[in-house]
Amino acid sequence: MAIVERLRKKFRDLYGQEPIVVAAPGRVNLIGEHTDYNEGFVLPGAVDKRMYVAIASQAEPEITIYANHFEESFSFNPEHALQPVSGWMNYMLGVTHHIKAAGKTIGGAQVLIDGDIPVGAGMSSSAALCSAYGFALNELFNLGLSRMELAFIGQKTEHTFVGVKCGIMDQFASLHGKSGHVMKLDCRSLEYEYIPFDFPDHKIVLVNSMVTHSLAGSEYNVRRQQCEEGVSIIKKTYHNINSLRDVNLQMLQEHQHLISPVVYDRCWYVVTEKDRLLNGCDALQHGDLEAFGKLMIATHNGLSKQYAVSCTQLDFLAERAGYIKGVAGSRMMGGGFGGCTINIVQTEMVDTFKQQIQHAFEQLFQVTPEVYITQIEDGTHVVNSEVYH
Fold first, then answer.
1. Which of 78-87, 89-98, 140-149, 351-360 has the lowest mean pLDDT?
2. Fold that domain 2-196+377-382 belongs to in CATH
3. How far apart are the C-alpha atoms of 333 and 335, rounded to whole Å?
């Protein structure tokens, strides 16, 4: 792969030695949105857009990192107390800090980072960067950390060094991905199983609404509070429930007269999304992409109307995709208020889909949406240049 060979050459030019190269993928989530913090299920898959970390040891007790994308370098002593700074360096500082906090010893290293995950497209480039760097340190210094331990280290880094209170899905998916499969992750127990997503005649196509997630942070917290409010009311009758994961539609409907219409809508979406995800896994296990696509459309409608986290551009993209031949399903993906739609499109129709969706969007919004064509691939791994393809 050209990017890996470029990375190796750049590393040799910078540091004069041969590196280990680790690739960590971005992720998509096929169905199960805003279910993670309600202790439900999610269904992510790792994709063929990746962050890369090239690494080699050095005698000096220092970690030197060069970010190819920014053409910036940064050095620090891993033995010293590490504090957040500003910018991309926080991901490396945080991962180093939390690996040390786990009782592991890190020596000096030379590092080069690069990648081809589009930033801001909702494919979790930051989680992939943490995964790649943590995995690279684990390999170089034989630290013996498991993939799940590395996922938690990435999550803690986001919480403490970056200030984003994310769930575990992004890091989990980047580290545990498997080609031809998505992962049904139980956000309560962290148990997971691989679900086949083996449709070689289809691609996963993301279309960027070109709207930034300006409301996502504050509104995300409001949605959490609304879900918790619904749970607190239902819990007075059903004492054993702890989250919307434990609530079924009948329970919710019994309490409709006690819950404000807005909170009821929020809870209704989460409870029905839980069922959609389980039905979606069943459809995939039976190879029924048509049924899965209908569930994706229902998810979008719920996110737009009951959960109210969509926007005009996302609604347009999801609806317009339904009129294009070869599209099995389409919905907004991620926290909302911007970002991408995720579409499952027949491979032979991808070019037509791209042309039609861009043209229609351009006419209405006077901007060309970016389109990313992906497929489900393996999770974080060491790249062997001789066999990688």
1. 78-87
2. Ribosomal Protein S5; domain 2 (3.30.230)
3. 7
CATH code at 203-374: 3.30.70.890
Q: Which residues are catalytic?
A: 170
**What is the tens place of the pLDDT at every residue in 72-96?**
999 999 999 889 888 889 999 999 9
Please report, as a single letter, which amino acid is at residue 326.
G
Q: To the nearest whole percent, how much of the chain has pLDDT over 90?
A: 84
Contact (CB, 8 A) for 282 and 295: no
pLDDT of 389 > 50? The answer is no
Average pLDDT over residues 266-286: 97
Domain boundaries, the chain: 2-196+377-382, 203-374
**Beta pairing partners, 374:** 204
Biggest alpha carbon–alpha carbon distance for the chain = 70
One fold for 2-196+377-382 and 203-374: no
CB 174 within 8 A of CB 27: yes
Sequence letter at residue 88: W
Handedness of CA 374, 274, 306, 267 (dihedral sign): negative
